[in-house]
């Protein structure tokens, strides 16, 4: 990331120069008045700036200008919530556009509309058979999310559900899933490679929903990630791969986790532990950084209560602090 200095006769001219060279996303790090004593009236002021999203992220934790807060409260709020600044600016602009064209809309309603146009949401499941593998960092809530989904599908929607564990890493992991399977009253199989996973899936070929639990692995363990990828991809049945990401993760952590899990080819995002988050930026950053649809939000440890379909309405409500009606 490169700092650049721009000198000009006055600040307006210096800003114009910055915009011409770096565009409007440049971030001003410092301003200096060189004064006439500097000798060149064409260079009376100096701006030091950086350009690009990373530069903007650097400033994320610094208070944004007070006038910014007054004139664009939604932008200020989103930045405060850890939303990437370039993204927050775009969303706030679009939201203002909706508010200007629909006078009666609240900020929350306009933001919801913007998010629906800007992000993808998986929406409710159809009636067709689905196989879903949950992947993600250790302890993010994969197994608990599977138990919640299994319980809803089996006990409330009366669908045929089965569970498969390919978590042979953590002591007691399979037993954890087995216990849930017993409580919910659904069958469960263990698998340890693509062949046994394939066998388990074909055994459950009549089930409407098969949920596959995987082991959380250290992001640095590339071999383990490759093993899980091979196991899922060679099992012989196409499946949805949900990457579980914690709501409280910073942009950098999210980006690293998304990159590390790329070999698993996730096609949906589930954001976990919303109840533990003190900022909700991850809800916008996750789908933006991964370019994937949001499927579920998990909101606590209780099985099966603490899970909901991911919606723009919920994000808009959390970000504006305005309740849903
Ligand atoms: N607060 C909160 N805790 C959760 C949520 N989902 C899961 N947990 C808790 O997080 C802990 C880990 O949950 P697991 O489901 O075992 O996580 P995992 O991703 O399967 O973990 P590994 O298999 O070890 O990688 C447990 O104590 C869960 O009760 C949630 O939405 N909110
Ligand atoms: Mg687990």
Explain what you see.
The protein is of the alpha/beta class. The chain folds into three domains: 1-59; 64-121; 130-309, 3-Layer(aba) Sandwich (Rossmann fold). Helices cover 42% and strands 18% of the residues. The chain is built from 13 helices and eleven strands. It has helices at residues 11-22, 53-58, 66-71, 73-80, 85-101, 107-118, 142-156, 173-184, 194-203, 222-233, 251-260, 282-290, 312-320, and strands spanning 4-8, 27-33, 45-50, 130-135, 161-165, 188-190, 209-213, 240-246, 268-272, 294-298, 307-309. Strands 6-5-7-4-8-9-10-11 form an eight-stranded mixed beta sheet, sandwiched between helices. It has a three-stranded antiparallel beta sheet with strand order 1-3-2, with helices on one face. Helix 6 (107-118) crosses helix 13. The protein starts with a strand and ends in a 5-residue tail after the last helix. The model is unreliable at 53-67 (pLDDT under 50). Residues 142-143, 167, 173, 213 line the site of magnesium ion. The site of magnesium ion has 5 residues, from helix 7.
